[in-house]
Structures are given as C-alpha cells and as structure tokens.
Amino acid sequence: MDTAQFRQNFTEFSDAARYPAAMIAAWSAQVERITSVDIYGDSYAFAVELGTAHFLTTAAMNVSASMNGGAPGSVGGVVSSKSVGDVSVAYDASIGTMGDDAGQWNATTYGRQYLTLARLFGAGCVQL
User: Fold this and answer.
1) H or E element: which one contains 50?
2) Residue 54 burial by Cβ neighbours in a 10 Å radius (0-12, 13-18, 19+)
3) Domain chopping of the chain, boundaries
4) pTM for this predicted structure
5) Is the pLDDT score of 123 beyond 80?
6) Are 40 and 121 in contact (CB under 8 A)?
C-alpha cells in the first residue's frame, strides 16, 4: 500500500508523529495478507486502506488507554446506565455492531466498512 496515498485518502492519519510510516506499513502488510486482489479487483487498494485504518485506530485507542492509566486492549461500549452513589457504570458493547460474527471488526467504523465490503464482494453476483 502507498502510505502517501493512504494519508491523502484518510487525512485523519496524516500526523506522521502519531502514525509513523513504519506503523502504517506494518499494519497494511497484515491487511494485504487477508485481502485478495482477485476478489476486490479495482477496490482492492481501498479495502486495504480501510483495514489499515481499522488497525491503526485500535492501536491508537490502546495508546490512549495506556497514557490515561487504563489497560491497553480493553473493550468498552456505549454507556447504557450509570449511578453516582458508589459509582457504577454499565456499557452496551453491542450497540451499532454488525452482529456477533463480525468479531473485532466491530471495534471501529473502518472495520465495519471493511467487513461490509468483504460481505458485498464475497457474496458474488446477486440477481434481484
């Protein structure tokens, strides 16, 4: 994947200090291994970029959690209830997901978009 093109298409990753080229290259190499040009055709580069954006986002979430005293890699969700006395909060991690079979792709909007493309391209020809 072309890092400069990726940064142009996904300007939210243009900060080279926060998202070094080596990090982008490492994640894109992994996504290229699980994404087939034979299936995606002209959309292959975009699919790889979406997958790369997904993994970069999860990495950034882990860095943020670590820097704020949290546990990197922990999973959260939308607050579904909270209390003030004795401080309690509950999260609904299923809101906005694409179902249980989407797995870790549910963690980011990029992952959901990647999975949507995978499902569309993987479905083959559909006649209505």
Assistant:
1) helix 44-67
2) buried
3) 3-91+105-123
4) 0.76
5) no
6) yes
